């Protein structure tokens, strides 16, 4: 079905699906009636990007049509890129992410114009854009056992709210875990359970950022955190991160000059570059933070995803003055479906964070916390993480092998999910992305992680989602597209 412009009669069409059906424009029970009705209202702007659309059941009830007819209409709308589906939630309006830019008309291809979320929503065969572990590498079958175990142990679980700060049993377990693995000296009272690191970032932004405040960020940085800070009105001050780590003189100057609310950083297998900051720099950084009374927001999502040596201890372990707030996510490699993360912070910062969490959702669902607790403390998890490290390292090595003929620059990461690749200056990243998307290959252009020119020639290739075979074939195709672009430009 093609995306035709609206005709006058369509514009005048009633807002009511019942009227549309009764008018019998497309044959009384045709799925096309429903297709046109929804499509028209989206085009007219009645339902904006990401708005939830009426459910299949609701439309079936309103029209008297069979649910399968409605479902078929939604499937066609999805195939044509007008809506997208969320698991068990329904259908939503797809934002217009692909537009043909007239000034690049000679390319004859749509250039990607959206943000990271928009890019992730594009369905492709060779998925190198989403920094996710494929569910095929997670022990899905065993999760059910832990769910059952938890219901046996806590029969009233579903009848109980979780405390806003998080389940005490889980916080006590994490207290011991952090002491054993990361040399933290913390109490369970200094741990707040959150729904993913993303919520932790939002709570911190809510508590500390007022419009016009300065916030130090890495350049490049985790894009979704930047979006949150900007939405709160922060003025972002980029700090260089490269293979040598941070430029501490630059950070000191910025702390002095801007008196920032905080420095948000991701020092362990940094997203997107994969860089891991040395222990020496970590110590110097916490000293600087204490000297300039600048909070450090340490975001740690890949602590256990190392390929060789363990990374240095988190900044929090070196910080004796209490200027570090530590975010630790277990979503990626334990269970994205449970979405468990936590904030570790000294008491002086804790009260406002807890208040923000109470306002946000009153507590992360107890079921998720208990299932996480029992799975996390099992020997199976340890075995799983060990296997996962090997599987991810193999995937990285395959990607590395396939890229070896290109001469493109990248630092081999010692952990994490991504390769941060610098393309030669004569290769246009937007054009490469447009051509790759056309061939069902995705990656993230560096510009989405940075407003600085310096990241414009970079791309982030994630090796944790595609299968080994997809990595081989997809990267071969990506390299072939780049070579084709190069030979065309030299003709
Ligand atoms: C650096 C960083 N922080 C936070 C997150 C979000 O983590 P979560 O899934 O726990 O919300 C991600 C996910 O990609 C990330 O890479």
Automatic annotation (TrEMBL):
The keyword Iron appears for this protein: no
Boundaries of every HTH gntR-type domain copy: 28-96
SMART domains, A to Z: HTH_GNTR
Single GO term (MF): DNA-binding transcription factor activity
Cofactor(s) this protein cannot do without: pyridoxal 5'-phosphate
Gene3D superfamilies: Aspartate Aminotransferase, domain 1, Type I PLP-dependent aspartate aminotransferase-like (Major domain), Winged helix-like DNA-binding domain superfamily/Winged helix DNA-binding domain
The keyword Protein transport appears for this protein: no
A Pfam family annotated for this UniProt entry: Aminotran_1_2
Keywords noted in UniProt: Aminotransferase, DNA-binding, Pyridoxal phosphate, Pyruvate, Transcription, Transcription regulation, Transferase
Family according to the record: In the C-terminal section; belongs to the class-I pyridoxal-phosphate-dependent aminotransferase family.
PANTHER family registered for this protein in UniProt: HTH-TYPE TRANSCRIPTIONAL REGULATORY PROTEIN GABR
Name of the protein described by the UniProt record: Arginine--pyruvate transaminase AruH
Record organism: Paenibacillus nuruki
């Amino acid at each position: 079905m093609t995306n035709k412009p609206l005709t006058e009669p369509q514009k005048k069409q009633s807002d009511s699906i019942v009227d549309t059906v009764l008018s019998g424009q497309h044959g009384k029970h045709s799925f096309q009636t429903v297709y046109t009705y929804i499509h028209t209202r989206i085009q007219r702007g009645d339902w904006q990007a990401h708005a939830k659309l009426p459910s299949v059941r609701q439309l079936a009830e309103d029209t008297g049509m069979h649910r399968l007819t409605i479902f078929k209409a939604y499937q066609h709308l999805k195939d044509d890129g007008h809506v997208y589906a969320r698991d068990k939630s329904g259908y939503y309006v797809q934002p217009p992410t692909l537009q043909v830019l007239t000034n690049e008309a000679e390319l004859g291809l749509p250039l990607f114009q959206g943000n990271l979320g928009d890019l992730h929503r594009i369905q492709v065969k060779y998925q190198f854009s989403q920094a996710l572990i494929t569910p095929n590498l997670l022990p899905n079958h065993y999760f059910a056992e832990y769910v059952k175990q938890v219901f046996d142990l806590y029969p009233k679980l579903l009848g109980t709210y979780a405390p806003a700060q998080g389940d005490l049993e889980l916080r006590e377990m994490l207290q011991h875990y952090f002491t054993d693995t990361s040399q933290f000296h913390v109490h369970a009272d200094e741990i707040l359970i959150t729904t993913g690191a993303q919520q932790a970032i939002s709570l911190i932004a809510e508590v500390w950022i007022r419009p016009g405040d300065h916030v130090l960020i890495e350049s490049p940085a985790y894009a979704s955190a930047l979006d949150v800070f900007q939405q709160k009105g922060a003025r972002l001050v980029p700090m260089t991160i490269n293979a040598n780590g941070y430029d501490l003189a630059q950070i000191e100057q910025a702390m002095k000059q801007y008196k920032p609310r905080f420095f948000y950083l991701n020092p362990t297998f940094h997203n997107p570059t994969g860089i891991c900051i040395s222990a020496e720099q970590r110590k110097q950084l916490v000293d600087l933070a204490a000297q300039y009374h600048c909070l450090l927001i340490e975001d740690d999502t890949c602590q256990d995803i190392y390929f060789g040596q363990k990374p240095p201890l988190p900044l929090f372990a070196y910080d004796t003055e209490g200027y570090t707030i530590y975010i630790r996510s277990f979503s990626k490699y334990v269970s994205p479906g449970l979405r468990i993360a936590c904030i570790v912070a000294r008491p002086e910062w804790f009260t406002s964070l807890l208040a923000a969490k109470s306002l946000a959702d009153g507590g992360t669902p107890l079921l998720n916390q208990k299932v996480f607790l029992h799975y996390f403390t099992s020997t199976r998890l340890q075995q799983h993480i060990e296997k996962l490290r090997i599987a991810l390292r193999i995937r990285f090595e395959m990607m590395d092998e396939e890229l070896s003929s290109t001469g493109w620059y990248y630092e081999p990461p010692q952990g994490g999910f991504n390769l941060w690749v610098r393309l030669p200056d004569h290769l246009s990243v937007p054009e490469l992305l447009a051509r790759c998307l056309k061939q069902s290959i995705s990656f993230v252009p560096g510009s989405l992680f940075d407003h600085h020119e310096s990241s414009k020639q970079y791309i982030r290739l994630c090796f944790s989602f595609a299968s080994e075979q997809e990595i081989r074939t997809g990267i071969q195709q990506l390299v072939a597209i780049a070579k084709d672009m190069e030979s065309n430009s030299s003709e």
